[in-house]
Amino acid sequence: MESLDVYDPDEDLVDSSVTQIKSCANKLDRKVKALVTGEQTRYKSKQQSIPTEASEQLSSLELLSESTMAATNDKERDMKRARTIRYDFTSDVEFVQSWLQQAESKAQDKSEKPENLQHHIQRILADWDSVVDRMSKVTRDGRILCDKTQNTAEQTLVKNTVMSLSEQLSHVKQVIEDRQEQISLALESWQAFLQAHSSLKAWLERTKTFLAATLTYPNLAYTRQKLAEYQSIQTDCTQTNKFISEMSKELEKIICACHPGDLPKMLSDIEQEKVEVEKQVQERTGLLAELAEEWEQCDKKIKEVNSWLEKARQTLESPHGKKKSLRDQLNVREKMLAEIAIQKAKVSMSIEKLEVHLKDTSTEDNQIIAKGKAVLHELRSLNGAVTVQTKTLESSVTQLEHYQQEIQRLKSHIAQAEQQLRIASSPAFSPRDHKKQLEEQHVCHDKIKHIQEKIAFVSERIKGIIQRGTPDPDPLYS
Q1: Helix (H) or strand (E) holding 28
Q2: Which helix (H) or strand (E) holds 462?
Q3: Is 14 in contact with 89 (CB distance < 8 Å)?
Q4: Cα 458-459-461 angle, rounded to 5 deg
Q5: Pick from 307, 270, 305, 328: which is nearest to 379 by CA?
Q6: Taking the mean position of all CA atoms in its chain, how far away is CA 149?
Q7: How far apart are CA 432 and CA 224, in angstroms?
Q8: For the chain, what is the mean pLDDT?
Q9: H/E element, 429
Q10: Helices (H), strands (E): how many in the chain?
Q11: Closest-CA residue to 458 (of 393, 414, 394)
């Protein structure tokens, strides 16, 4: 009985051995009791006392029997305790292993949002002390099994099991601590992502409101101001890239630790929204830059044309110009009419180009358009005045040339008359009839005088045309 190992892992064998020993002990006890009772009865029937030596031997035998029964009961209790310890050890080991596996699985789970994972970690930590207590019990029971059992294989298995489970416990503890830090960082990254998203969303809303405002272009200064505002927003577009970069960086951290939820879609949507807004800003900025350039060109050309108009008026009203010949004055005005056409085309084309950029806006209050139309009106007015002057000068020059031709014709007649006078004054002309010669000379003198009077009269008419700059209202020759 003493050699029986109640901590032997073969519980059926131990149970069978203890039952057999107990049965033998009971039989032995009954035999001892029967022997003692029989001896007492036998001596009593003889009315004799049991001899001292025999009585001592019987008492010793009874004590031995009782001791054997006590030892048997102790073995049975030890067997039950060993069985309970082994059962508790196995049960606790299974529990701790299962809990550690589940805890590690939940801790390393990345399929949920960080708030849920944080809740799981908190629940794991809430159970941690009770699991540590179970592990302490496993260690105590394992130590008892190792101390009590005589089975070397079981000792090794129990030691390895306790050691492995302790290592698993430490490993899971480290995993939980690491995951706590990861989840904490993921929550911080989540908040950073939402903050960057909120900042970018607010910027997009402000920019959309700005883009939605109706644009009017009353003057170049206002247009330049709007261009500067759009250029500033375009600069902001570049600076807001940091929000996208920050969200992408934080999202990568979150994905490494847990499920990102709707964050990837939020990033994709706001990135697309930003691209569309940036496109509108770039288009508007480009159009405004072109508009400002066209406006400057238009304003420059209008100023150039105004300057030309002033010089043209000075030329027309210049006393020096009026002293020029009618032909020169006519040439000046003909050139001016051609230049007016060029200036009108210059202003008209510049206004048309500007109006292309202003096609979607009202131009009623546009100062440059108004200036351009005013200049065109002045050019048309000047063109009308110069056209009238040109026609007048054309008529004057034509009439003047006609009168000059008439003077040349009259001068040729004078030359002829003078030739006739020389002939009539020649001694060879009618020497016998002096009176006839005198009469012929008188006729020639009268003729010359009459032609000279005509020349003087036509010359006066020419002088009047030149002085007035207008044709003779009562022409000599139609």
Answers
A1: helix 11-45
A2: helix 434-468
A3: no
A4: 65
A5: 305
A6: 74
A7: 105
A8: 84
A9: none
A10: 11, 0
A11: 414
Rounded CA separation 350/293 (Å): 11
The residue whose two tokens read 């569309």 is 276
pLDDT confidence band for 9 (50 / 70 / 90) = low
Q: What b-and-e string marks burial along 227-241, b requiring 16 or more CB atoms within 10 Å of the CB?
A: beebeebeeebeebe
Closest CA to 385 of 453, 328, 323, 336: 336
Q: How far apart are the first and last CA of the chain?
A: 171
Residue 69 vs residue 305, higher pLDDT: 305
Q: Any idea what the Cα angle at residue 73 is, between residues 68 and 76, rounded to 5°?
A: 125
**Please, are residues 227 and 289 in contact by the beta-carbon 8 Å criterion?**
yes
In the chain, the amino acid numbered 205 is E
- Phi/psi at 426 (nearest 5 deg)? -70, 140
Instruction: Output the CA–CA distances (angstroms, integers) from residue 389 to 167, 177, 382, 395, 469, in the order listed.
Output: 115, 102, 10, 10, 9
Look-up: residue for tokens 């540590």?
A: 132
Record the tokens describing residue 415, joined without a space: 């030359």
What is the model's pTM? Answer: 0.63
**Does residue 12 register a pLDDT over 70?**
no
Q: How far is CA 461 from CA 199, 241, 267, in A?
A: 90, 87, 94
pLDDT digits (tens, 9 = 90+) for 103-142: 999 988 888 998 898 899 999 999 999 999 999 999 998 8
Q: Which of 93, 112, 205 is nearest to 157 (CA)?
A: 93
DSSP per residue over 241-260, as a string? HHHHHHHHHHHHHHHHHS--
3-state SS, residue 431? coil
At 133 the three-state DSSP class reads: helix
User: Which residue shows structure tokens 């927003």?
Assistant: 233
Determine the residue type at 224: R
Site of tokens 């003692």: 36
Please say if the pLDDT value at position 465 is more than 90.
Answer: no
